[in-house]
């Protein structure tokens, strides 16, 4: 099919990726529509807003980091922002399945989607505007790369946007070695999000794991994030000698640039063992 614009090129690239991944038996981005329905919404930490949804039957129940590209409802946004949106191109945002389970009473799949609210932005406004019974459409599935975390000493690095993935990873941790977790939040109180998990048995007693293995960085406008992460890591690895073999992280684009480089030097890991994703961009 002839390609007439960049968007078509992108979609065709994804379709090609999808076809080759299917042949290789790998999970990759899927262009497909999925329909959810909101049943509830409430804050689970000062700035993390939870949507409870009824989900399609085919969603993965055990894949931490599985995300969807949500189409934000233009009517809702234009009402909230007091201005009309350009309806040609719907606004879209990625959000992760925090948890999904089959509900035996409702006979359907239920899920949590946790949206970090950082002021008056389209994603946060959309999430808070949704009320019980409203439909939500997603247009793309995005399975996060986490397979490398099943063995070896792992380091997980998250900010508010990737807290839902780390929470799900910790609740479903299969690796016998407990991971080291570095969580970055702007509001110190948002760390409470990780203190209300139903930690998996491998990780032992909740409080002990969180006390020993969770390192918290409070980000300020002047924080040099990669420097802080590296120095925290150095300090931690001096008191408790661990050989980090695998890394998963997701942060802001600019923060990642120097972090990738510095972690590579500090830990000496290959690309396959160090997965660090861009989850958002500061403007
Ligand atoms: C695969 C994937 C999964 C994701 N899963 C989640 C998830 O489960 N929960 C979640 O909350 N987010 C998640 N994100 C990130 C989310 O998609 C972005 O945060 C979102 O695009 C922000 O949309 P917005 O409309 O709120 O702000 P935007 O319109 O993107 O930005 C508006 C303004 O807010 C600032 N801003 C944007 N994001 C942040 C932030 N996180 N902190 C501080 N300032 C910010 C920007 O600099 C900009 O000035 C995920 C991203 C990806 C790629």
* Overall number of structural domains: 2
Secondary structure category: alpha/beta
Overall mean pLDDT? 89
Task: Give the distance, in angstroms, between the N- and C-terminal Cα atoms.
Answer: 36 Å
Strand arrangement within the widest β-sheet reads: 1-2-5-4-3-6
The level 1 CATH classification of the largest domain is: Mainly Beta
Number of strands: 11
The helix count comes to: 7
Secondary-structure arrangement, i.e. CATH architecture of the largest domain: Beta Barrel
Predict the CATH topology of the largest domain. Elongation Factor Tu (Ef-tu), domain 3
* Order of secondary-structure elements: HEEEHEEHEEHEHEHEHE
Let me know the largest β-sheet: 6 strands, antiparallel, barrel
Q: Please estimate the helix content.
A: 25-40%
The backbone outline, from C-alpha atoms, is globular
Q: What low-confidence regions span 5 or more consecutive residues with pLDDT below 50?
A: none
Offer a few descriptive terms.
Rossmann fold; 7 helices; binds flavin-adenine dinucleotide; single chain; 283 residues; Elongation Factor Tu (Ef-tu), domain 3; six-stranded antiparallel β-barrel; 2 domains; alpha/beta; 11 strands; five-stranded parallel sheet
Task: Give an account of the 3D structure.
- The protein is of the alpha/beta class and 283 residues long.
- The chain folds into two domains: 6-142, Translation factors (Elongation Factor Tu (Ef-tu), domain 3), CATH 2.40.30; 147-280, Nucleotide-binding domain of ferredoxin-NADP reductase (FNR) module (Rossmann fold), CATH 3.40.50.
- The protein has seven helices and eleven strands.
- The strands form two sheets. The protein has a six-stranded antiparallel beta barrel with strand order 1-2-5-4-3-6. A five-stranded parallel β-sheet has the order 9-8-7-10-11, with helices on both faces.
- Helix 2 (74-81) crosses helix 3 (122-129) and helix 6 packs parallel to helix 7.
- The longest helix is centred in the N-terminal third of the chain and has 19 residues, at 6-24.
- The radius of gyration is 19 Å and the shape is globular.
- The mean pLDDT is 89.
- Flavin-adenine dinucleotide binds at residues 67, 93-96, 114-116, 118, 121-124, 142, 160-161, 164, 279-280, 282-283.
């Amino acid at each position: 099919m002839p390609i007439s614009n960049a968007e078509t090129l992108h979609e065709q690239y994804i379709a090609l990726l999808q076809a080759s991944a299917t042949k290789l038996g790998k999970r990759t981005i899927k262009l497909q529509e999925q329909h959810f329905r909101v049943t509830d919404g409430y804050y689970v930490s000062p700035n993390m807003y939870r949507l409870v949804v009824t989900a399609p039957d085919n969603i993965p129940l055990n894949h931490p980091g599985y995300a969807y590209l949500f189409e934000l409802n233009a009517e809702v946004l234009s009402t909230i922002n007091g201005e009309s949106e350009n309806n040609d191109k719907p606004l879209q945002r990625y959000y992760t399945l925090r948890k999904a389970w089959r509900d035996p009473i409702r006979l359907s799949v239920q899920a949590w989607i946790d949206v970090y609210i950082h002021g008056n932005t389209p994603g946060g406004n959309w999430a808070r505007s949704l009320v019980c019974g409203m439909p939500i459409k997603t247009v793309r599935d995005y399975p996060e790369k986490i397979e490398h975390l099943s063995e070896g000493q792992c380091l997980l690095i998250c900010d508010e946007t990737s807290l839902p993935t780390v929470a799900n990873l910790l609740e479903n941790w299969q690796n016998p070695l407990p991971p080291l977790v570095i969580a970055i939040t702007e509001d110190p109180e948002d760390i409470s999000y990780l203190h209300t998990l139903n930690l998996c048995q491998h990780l032992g007693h909740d409080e002990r794991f969180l006390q020993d293995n969770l390192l918290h960085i409070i980000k300020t406008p002047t924080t040099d994030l990669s420097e802080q992460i590296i120095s925290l890591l150095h300090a931690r690895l001096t008191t408790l000698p661990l050989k980090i073999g695998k890394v998963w992280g997701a942060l802001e684009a600019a923060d990642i640039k120097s972090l990738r480089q510095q972690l590579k030097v500090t830990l000496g890991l290959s690309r396959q063992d160090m997965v660090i994703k861009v989850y958002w961009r500061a403007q």
